């Protein structure tokens, strides 16, 4: 009989992640991620972006995979977080209007204290305001179903980008530069390192939160909404509350992520950086689908694979990269809609499938 | 807010005409979008790219010496086959699936086509000259480029042809039957595969016509397809699915709205306001439906 | 179906693995090569000019290599340029520049196309202390940040159409004029606008219409209707290639009469060729024109550059290509004066550049901008359907006289 190598590989992975070895597995990953910026020093910024993408895919999955609401609008929170963080970083110490005037001609320099204070406060607000926005508009927007919801959120994202392009205070079409990292603080690498670890910290926090969330009743309700919202309502669940809470949680993480990315890139442009519909909107969705919607690890695997694939191809296929990407998207969507995790689940249900608690099973009443 | 347009009736007329003519052209593209959405449950993100492709056909006719206005005949013919080809290659695997999947698959087609067009046609922004001149009204206070009137006229003619075709012809009736209930239609002997392929082909043809109009009215570039996609599905959403005559009306209404927003709020908020309108309409609809659901409870 | 899935999965996994691994390798440095990095817009909305930029860079690099390369401290070197496609996206450009510096280990950088992308990229090169000679980012805000490693061969954006306003005032007998303007909402166009605002303030002229054009400019009819109402003395439009083409088309369609029409990107969009007689009398800002009499030993003068570029690439070089070529000439000069490839030494040598190229005189000010080269204005003049661009200002290099005011449409 032929050896099923995939099975062996998968078996190995599942042994790693089993209850006994789980702590080793997770600490191994954390250790690797902590050391990565030093081992792969030239790839720090790329890794930071990959961590952010994983975060975005995971938070998208809260709506898209777990709840069944395909949103193209999380980018709204991303951009708002980005602009807010940068505005506060600048506005706390210098007049914002003058900073952005004439496309940023005047220069002000932050001292080290000012820089980090600004960053800290900025990130806090980037985490606070987007959930508030989600809460306010949630009632109207989350009432829409299916593709209307998707299109409405898409409209929101684009409108926000265009709107930001018209507001003079934040630079309008000319964009806004974020405060430069204080000079003379250390090696050149320090800036990338600082932001890498901030991204890592945020991602770990997100992972822990979502993992805990999915194991609670909240997670079950989200899945119930996905499976059949009307039935869930009929059973007495106030679905709207859960929908809005889920969106607010996503908004929190996405907003902070936006603030961080704004600082990493250094130059905020309304449509290309802050409210980047293509990258954030569509790719987020693709990554999650590639990895497997509705699972915890799916978005992570999908985002990682997608990012590595994309970055590698960009250099190979100069000028053809979007052709390759387009083909990849079509292939994923047609042949692998359930994604990697989904595929593995189908193949090896004992390892990855839904775990049914023995107690629950016995407690089920069988009608004979 | 700049109330310039209300200061003179000529200005108001000019703005309105600009808006309506623009809207009619977009409505044609929206027709195709509505057609495939209704029949095949597909939202085609690559719609704008099909328009641009159609436009390039007219452009190449122009560079070859043929008047680009004939593009409105040649372009749909070529684009029909492009559409059928695309269907057989990709779309047929996406048809009976989730609507969302179709969005992603057509997104893939869209970015692929953009780059292929960049290679095939070069990265220049191009225009096709129709030399149609301009209609001057009211002592030159109102100018209506004939190319825009031509585009609107062509759009209306093709819309009428389409409606008649759907009502009278065998294929048209088959399409409508499939739209109502695909399975029943199949049982009754309709070849749904052929229907789907034709529908997508017709959509591509409509985009071809619109593209030829775009070539003589605006500019062409491989990467300017997105605005057409976006406007067309906004029109379909506003009109409501299944409401084909509504598409024409909402197309004109959105065109008017966009033009007025340009004058009143300033050009930089033109697009933002249209999208906000879309969001508002969707939310309004949601609350209206919710009230209906309330009654059922 | 299952088998197909298996095949696709394995192929995909294999591809991922190999590509992931191979992209880790940084290229081995060949011994007598100076590696320059450039992220240019090969796709996206700037693809037209991104291509002009790339061709300009390549044309000059090839020419310098053919003519003996660069002599640094007695050793001969050749240029090698590594390109990435920034997709006309600023975030992408910044990422790619970081990649060029850190992973591909380029020694020096060439700039991207457009002010917006240069603004995104400059902080990265500055932080990594890598000298960048850029040829297509004209925004004044680039030069006020105290960047030490940024050098621009082109004249700053705000200078683009100031000359036009001065001309208009001159033709108006020294009296202030009424200006109508429409600008696209990106870094470059908005900077040109600032220049107009400065010129207006300087001459006491009034701005009667100040419109912004959305990025996906398809239709500027609304603005033109207002222009017809306001009857200004000058109409200024700047919106990259698409803006120029749309403007001429709609101005001719709507029969908008203005005494002076000033635009940017006329040659990059091949305006005279595409619109023919409709584009007649339009005034265009240019960084360079082939009829200017600057010279250097690599390309001779502008006319020769134009001829040889056209022979190699099949179209006449717009100034975007010319200024890109100039960047390579600047580097060669700096390397040879520095006598070394050390980044600091080269940076210092760049800062003291003072040379003439076929493109113009180059001398860098304290912020990195070129202070020795004025902008030129040319006017589209037509003989039947054959339209040419003729330089009309500054008068020192004019090859034709400015036609002002533009005859009304009904008289054309």
How would you describe what is shown here?
The complex is a heterotrimer of chains A (368), B (297) and C (412). With 368 residues, chain A is mainly alpha-helical. Chain A has helices at 5-16, 22-39, 44-64, 74-91, 96-100, 112-141, 146-164, 189-215, 217-227, 229-234, 239-265, 270-274, 277-291, 297-316, 321-335, 339-347, 349-352, 358-363; strands at 176-177, 267-268. Chain A is built from 18 helices and two strands. In chain A, strands 1-2 form a two-stranded antiparallel sheet. The radius of gyration of chain A is 22 Å and the shape is globular. Chain B has one domain (21-242). In chain B, strands 1-2 form a two-stranded antiparallel ribbon. The longest helix of chain B is centred in the N-terminal third of the chain and has 32 residues, at 9-40. The mean pLDDT of chain B is 85. Chain C is built from twelve helices and 17 strands. In chain C, the strands form four sheets. In chain C, strands 8-7-9-10-11-16-17 form a seven-stranded mixed sheet, sandwiched between helices. Chain C has a six-stranded mixed sheet with strand order 2-3-1-4-5-6. In chain C, α11 crosses α12. Classes of the chains: A mainly alpha (368), B mainly alpha (297), C alpha/beta (412). At the A-C interface, α3, α12, α14 and α15 of A face α1, β3, α3, α4 and α6 of C.
If you consult CATH, what is the topology of the largest domain in chain C? Rossmann fold
- DSSP strand (E) fraction of chain B? under 5%
The percent range for helix content of chain B is over 70%
Report the strand count of chain B: 2
Note the total helix count of chain C: 12
CATH superfamily of the largest domain in chain C: Response regulator
Features:
heterotrimer; A: 368 residues; mainly alpha; 2 strands; B: 297 residues; 74% helix; globular
Could you outline the blueprint of secondary structure elements for this entry?
The complex is a heterotrimer of chains A (368), B (297) and C (412).
Chain A: H1 5-16, H2 22-39, H3 44-64, H4 74-91, H5 96-100, H6 112-141, H7 146-164, E1 176-177, H8 189-215, H9 217-227, H10 229-234, H11 239-265, E2 267-268, H12 270-274, H13 277-291, H14 297-316, H15 321-335, H16 339-347, H17 349-352, H18 358-363
Antiparallel strand pairs in A: 1-2
Chain B: H1 9-40, H2 47-63, H3 71-89, H4 99-121, E1 134-137, E2 142-145, H5 146-168, H6 170-180, H7 182-187, H8 192-217, H9 226-239, H10 244-265, H11 270-296
Antiparallel strand pairs in B: 1-2
Chain C: H1 2-22, E1 33-40, H2 47-66, E2 70-72, E3 75-85, H3 90-102, E4 108-110, H4 115-127, E5 132-134, E6 150-152, H5 162-171, E7 178-184, H6 187-203, E8 206-213, H7 221-230, E9 234-238, H8 240-253, E10 260-263, H9 271-275, E11 283-286, E12 295-296, E13 300-301, H10 302-313, H11 319-338, H12 343-351, E14 354-357, E15 360-363, E16 376-383, E17 386-393
């Amino acid at each position: 009989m032929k050896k099923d190598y995939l099975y062996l590989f998968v078996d190995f992975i599942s042994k790693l992640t089993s209850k006994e070895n789980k702590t080793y597995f997770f600490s191994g990953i954390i250790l690797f991620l902590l050391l990565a910026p030093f081992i792969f020093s030239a790839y720090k910024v790329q890794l930071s972006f990959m961590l952010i993408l994983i975060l975005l895919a995971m938070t998208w999955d809260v709506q898209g995979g777990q709840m069944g609401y395909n949103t193209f609008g999380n980018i709204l929170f991303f951009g708002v977080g980005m602009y807010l963080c940068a505005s506060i970083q600048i506005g706390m110490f210098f007049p914002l209007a003058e900073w952005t005037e004439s496309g940023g001609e005047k220069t002000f320099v932050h001292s080290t204290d000012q820089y980090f204070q600004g960053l800290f406060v900025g990130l806090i607000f980037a985490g606070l305001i987007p959930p508030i926005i989600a809460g306010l508009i949630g009632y109207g927007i989350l009432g829409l179903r299916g593709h209307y919801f998707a299109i409405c959120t898409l409209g929101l994202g684009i409108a926000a980008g265009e709107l930001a392009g018209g507001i003079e205070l934040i630079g309008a079409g000319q964009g806004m530069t974020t405060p430069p990292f204080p000079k003379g603080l250390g090696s050149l690498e320090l800036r990338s390192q600082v932001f890498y670890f901030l991204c890592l910290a945020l991602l770990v926090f997100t992972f822990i939160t979502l993992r805990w969330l999915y194991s609670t009743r909240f997670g079950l309700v989200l899945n119930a909404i996905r499976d059949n919202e009307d039935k869930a309502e009929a059973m007495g669940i106030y679905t709207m509350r859960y929908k809005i809470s889920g969106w607010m949680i996503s908004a929190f993480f996405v907003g902070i992520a936006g603030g961080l990315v704004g600082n990493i890139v250094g130059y905020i442009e309304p449509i290309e950086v802050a409210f980047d519909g293509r990258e954030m909107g569509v790719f987020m969705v693709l990554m999650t689908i590639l990895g497997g919607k509705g699972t915890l690890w799916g978005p992570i695997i999908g985002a990682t694979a997608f990012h590595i694939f994309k970055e590698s191809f960009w250099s190979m296929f100069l000028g053809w990269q979007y052709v390759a990407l387009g083909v990849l998207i079509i292939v994923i969507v047609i042949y692998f809609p359930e994604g990697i995790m989904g595929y593995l689940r189908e193949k090896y249900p004992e390892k990855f499938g839904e775990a049914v608690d023995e107690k629950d099973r016995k407690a089920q009443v069988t009608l004979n | 807010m700049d109330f310039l347009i209300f200061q003179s009736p000529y200005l108001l007329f000019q703005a309105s005409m600009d808006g309506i003519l623009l809207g009619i052209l977009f409505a044609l593209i929206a027709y195709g979008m509505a057609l495939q959405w209704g029949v095949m449950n597909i939202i085609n993100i690559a719609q704008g790219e099909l328009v641009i492709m159609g436009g390039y056909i007219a452009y190449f006719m122009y560079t070859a010496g043929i008047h680009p206005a004939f593009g409105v005949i040649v372009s749909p013919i070529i684009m029909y086959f492009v559409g059928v080809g695309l269907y057989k290659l990709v779309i047929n695997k996406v048809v009976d699936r989730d609507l969302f999947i179709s969005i992603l698959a057509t997104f893939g087609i869209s970015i692929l086509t953009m780059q292929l067009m960049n290679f095939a046609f070069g990265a220049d922004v191009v225009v096709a000259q129709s030399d149609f001149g301009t209609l001057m009204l009211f002592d030159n206070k109102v100018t209506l480029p004939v190319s825009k009137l031509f585009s609107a006229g062509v759009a209306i003619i093709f819309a009428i042809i389409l409606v008649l075709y759907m009502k009278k012809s065998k294929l048209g009736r088959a399409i409508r039957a499939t739209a109502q209930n695909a399975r029943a239609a199949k049982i009754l002997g309709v070849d749904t595969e052929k229907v789907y392929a034709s529908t997508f082909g017709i959509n591509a043809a409509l985009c071809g016509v619109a593209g030829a109009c775009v070539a003589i009215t605006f500019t062409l570039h491989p990467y300017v397809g997105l605005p057409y996609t976006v406007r067309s599905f906004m029109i379909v959403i506003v009109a409501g699915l299944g409401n084909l005559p509504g598409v024409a009306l909402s197309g004109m209404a959105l065109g008017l709205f966009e033009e007025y927003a340009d004058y009143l709020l300033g050009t930089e908020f033109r697009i933002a306001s249209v999208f906000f309108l879309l969001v508002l309409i969707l939310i309004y609809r949601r609350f209206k439906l919710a009230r209906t659901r309330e009654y059922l409870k | 179906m299952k088998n197909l899935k298996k095949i696709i999965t394995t192929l995909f996994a294999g591809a991922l693995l190999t590509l992931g691994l191979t992209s880790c390798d940084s290229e081995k440095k060949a011994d007598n090569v100076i590696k320059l990095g450039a992220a240019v817009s090969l796709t996206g909305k700037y693809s037209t000019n991104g291509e002009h930029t790339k061709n300009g860079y390549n044309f000059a690099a090839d020419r310098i290599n053919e003519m003996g390369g660069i002599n640094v401290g007695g050793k001969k070197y050749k240029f090698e340029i590594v390109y990435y496609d920034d997709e006309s996206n600023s975030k992408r450009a910044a990422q790619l520049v970081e990649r060029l510096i850190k992973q591909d280990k380029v020694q020096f950088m060439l700039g991207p196309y457009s002010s917006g992308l240069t603004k995104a990229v400059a902080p990265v090169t500055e932080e990594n202390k890598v000298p960048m000679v850029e040829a297509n980012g004209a925004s004044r805000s680039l030069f006020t940040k105290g960047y030490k490693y940024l050098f621009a061969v082109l004249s700053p954006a705000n200078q683009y159409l100031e000359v036009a306003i001065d001309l208009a005032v001159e033709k108006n007998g020294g009296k202030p004029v009424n200006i109508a303007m429409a600008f696209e909402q990106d870094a470059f166009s908005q900077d040109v606008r600032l220049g107009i605002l400065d010129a207006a303030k300087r001459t006491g002229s009034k701005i009667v219409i100040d419109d912004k054009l959305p990025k996906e400019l398809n239709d500027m009819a609304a603005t033109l209707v207002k222009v017809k109402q306001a009857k200004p003395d000058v109409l200024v439009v700047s919106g990259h290639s698409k803006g120029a083409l749309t403007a001429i088309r709609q101005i001719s369609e709507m029969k908008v009469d203005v005494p002076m029409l000033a635009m940017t990107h006329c040659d990059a969009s091949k305006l005279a060729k595409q619109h023919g007689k409709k584009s007649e009398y339009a005034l265009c800002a240019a960084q360079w024109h082939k009829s200017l009499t600057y010279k250097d030993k690599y390309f001779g003068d502008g006319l020769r550059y134009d001829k040889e570029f056209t022979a190699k690439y099949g179209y006449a070089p717009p100034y975007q290509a010319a200024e890109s070529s100039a960047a390579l000439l600047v580097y060669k000069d700096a390397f040879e004066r520095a006598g070394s490839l050390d980044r600091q030494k080269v940076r210092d040598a760049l800062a003291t550049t003072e040379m003439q190229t076929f493109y113009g005189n180059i001398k860098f000010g304290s912020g990195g901008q070129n202070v020795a080269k004025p902008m030129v204005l040319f006017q589209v003049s037509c003989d039947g359907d054959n339209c040419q661009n003729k330089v009309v200002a500054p008068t020192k290099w004019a090859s034709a006289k400015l036609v002002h005011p533009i005859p009304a449409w009904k008289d054309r």
